[in-house]
Structures are given as structure tokens and as C-alpha cells.
Amino acid sequence: MGTISALNDTPDVSDSTSQVPITTTEPVAAEDSLVVANSKFPKWPVVLVGVLMLFGIAAAIAWPINLPYYALAPGPVYDVDDFVIIDDANVPTGGLVEGESAAGGEGELFFLTVSLAEVNLFEYIGGLIDESVDLRPREVIRPTGVSQDDLRRQNIDLMVQSQQDAIFVALTKLGYDVTFSGEGARIIEITPGSAAEGVLEPEDIIVEVDGEPIEFSTEAVEQVGGRAVGETLTLKVNRPINETEFETFEVRVTLGPHIDDPERGMIGVLLTNARVDIDFPVDVVIDSQNIGGPSAGMMFTLEIIDLLDEGDLTKGNRIAGTGTINTDGDVGPIGGIRQKVFAAIDAGADYVLVPLGNFDDAADAAGDRIEVVPIAHIDEALEFLANL
């Protein structure tokens, strides 16, 4: 019989008449085996796959979890012409075409919006990087105890009030006689832990603040705004007994710190308008298309004037703008001004009209990319447009 050599060597067989498979129990060198394995199967892909899987699992778990922050980002830019409808049947000049300026101008008026959403971890990180996004603590946007539905309801009410104020100011500027009256500021919600808790109730209607009559919610906000923490106000309140009867009383409220600014005073209520009676001599309809908030007031006012008056306010320019309006024609500051300026730039506007109180932040966001025009009263906006 021949001898058996190590594995993979050729065996020496002396019996040529019968060949059978030859095996051996001699072990293979471990280092030889490892060299072969490592050359075929490197470890780093396995590690990489494992890391990616862990990251994916972590992302899947973290994605639906919102942080206590809201992101303010540039929202859609809307052509105001798409929102204002005027029935020309009782317009003295007549001949208006729905959705068109009387002069058929080629310019456009835009109002600006902000996109507001709660964020998860990844969106929060993105917001820190993106210059057009601002992050705000949740309690600043939606105070504790106020639901998302409550916030939405208040913003819709503010939009309705803004529309009525815009129609009033526009028609008054054009010389129409308008009757416009309200019955006070109705409380929607009480902020827990605020000065109002235990003193006021939802559905209460504030009709006076320190002796000043209150017809609309915006007037109540103006009366309280700017007051210091610890200051005491006297409120006259109508509390409903049934659908037609009220209990009227006075209550003194000491202002607590504002959620957004601890140095400012706050009653701690969400407000809307009680019943409003308006007699407009021209039928003007503003379709808000489910957009909330009061910041389109100035632009609605300009659009109504543009439709009813001769000439073209825009002189062929693309004019974007934002700002509240009250019945005196004052243009008030709004939130999210940086985001709105970025939106105006992206929309290719030639100018952006902003409230005087927001001018510094707006100019900082704009840089040299768009001309920012500060407006304190509707007359200033009309004067700027007239001089284009």
C-alpha cells in the first residue's frame, strides 16, 4: 500500500488494479483556512449593514414622536384677486368684472402666509439649519390647555374679523357710508394658571376694559396689549343665562406674565367676536378658503379699493404684503415676518409691504433681494402705490 500525504497532495498508490477515494484525518492549518475566508468575505460590509439597520430602526421609532416645538416656515403666496368677489349690481360706477381690476391692470397684489407645524427630532434639526425656518416652543404658539381645534377656531375667527375690517376701511376710504357694530369680545378658552382662571368663564363677553367700550375682540387685545405684569384691570362682562338673557357684572383682574414675554401682562383668554352687525352699501365677499389669522387685512383692503376705484394701484408691479387692519385703518404687526419675506422673494415680488412694527426683522431677512416698505396706516400704503 502506498503512503498518504497531506491533503491536496497527490497520493502514491502501488495497487493500480483498484483505485478508491483516499481520505485523511490530518487537520488543515487554521491560518490557511482564515486566509481563505477573509479573502472572500470582508467584515466591513456586515458592520455597515448593521449600523444602517440600527439607524433605520431608530429613525422609524423617532419619526412619529413630536418635540414640544413648532416650526414656522414660508407658506403659500396667494393672489388676493382670487379671494375678493364684488357684486357690481349696486356699485355706482358699474361695469366691474368679477375678479378683475376696473382698469384691467397687469400688476398683482399678493398676501403672504406662514406654514406652522409641530416637529419631530429630524425636522427640528433641519429647522436649526434652514435660515427661513424659526422654531418656537409649543406653549408660545399653543398655550397649555388650549387644543389644536381651539387654536384653529380662533385663527378662523380672526380671519373673519380681518375681512370685515378690510371691507369697512376700503369702503370708507372710497366715501361709502358703512354701519359697523359689534357686541363685545367672547371668551373661547381660559388658560390654566392665568389671571382669568377662576374669575372668567368660556362664553363670557367682555364689553368694557377700564371703562373703554369693547365691540370687537381686536379692541380688547389692543386695550390689554402693552400692560405690565401686576397691573389691575376692571372688566365689564356679560355672562349668558340663556340664548337671550345676560348677567352683567364687573370684575378686577391682575395681569400675570405673558407666555411669550414674561415682562408683558396677560389676562389668559382666547377671544373671538360676539355678534357683529354690519351694513355694507356694496356687496363684497372675501372667501378665506379655510386660511386663518388676521394678517391679510391690509392686502384685502388694497384689493377692494383696486377693484372699486378707477386706475390700477399696482402700476403693473407685483406687490406682496402682510399686516392686520383695524377700523381706523391702522396696520398692525404680525407673526412670522421673516418667513413671509422669504415667501415674497421666492414668489418674485417687486416689493413687500410690512407693518412698521415688523420692519427691522423684515429688512434683515430681505437683505438686498427685495425692497421692504414699512406701513403704519393704510394711507401710507396707498401713497406708496400712487407714487410707483
Structure description:
With 388 residues, the chain is α+β, with helices and mostly antiparallel strands. It has two domains: 30-62; 75-113 and 144-386, Pdz3 Domain, CATH 2.30.42. The chain is 30% helix and 27% strand. The protein has helices spanning 30-40, 44-62, 121-129, 138-141, 148-173, 217-224, 297-308, 337-346, 359-366, 378-386, and strands at residues 66-79, 84-87, 108-120, 134-137, 179-182, 185-190, 205-209, 212-213, 232-240, 246-254, 256-257, 265-266, 269-273, 276-279, 283-286, 318-321, 324-325, 331-332, 351-355, 371-375. The strands form six sheets. Strands 4-1-3-16-19-20 form a six-stranded mixed β-sheet, sandwiched between helices. Strands 6, 7, 8, 9, 10 and 13 form a six-stranded antiparallel β-sheet that branches. A hairpin with a 5-residue loop joins strand 17 (324-325) and strand 18 (331-332). The N and C termini lie far apart (114 Å). The model is unreliable at 1-25, 28-37 and 94-104 (pLDDT under 50).
CATH structural architecture of the largest domain = Roll
The tally of helices reads 10
Strand content: 25-35%
Q: What is the helix content?
A: 25-40%
Mean pLDDT across residues: 82
Derived structural class: alpha+beta
Radius of gyration: 35 Å
CATH topology of the largest domain: Pdz3 Domain
What low-confidence regions span 5 or more consecutive residues with pLDDT below 50?
A: 1-25, 28-37, 94-104
**What can be said about the biggest beta sheet?**
6 strands, mixed
How many distinct beta strands?
20
Please, how many domains?
A: 2
Q: Which strand order spans the largest sheet, edge to edge or round the barrel? A: 4-1-3-16-19-20
Shape: globular
CATH H-level superfamily title of the largest domain: PDZ domain
What separation lies between the terminal Cα atoms? 114 Å
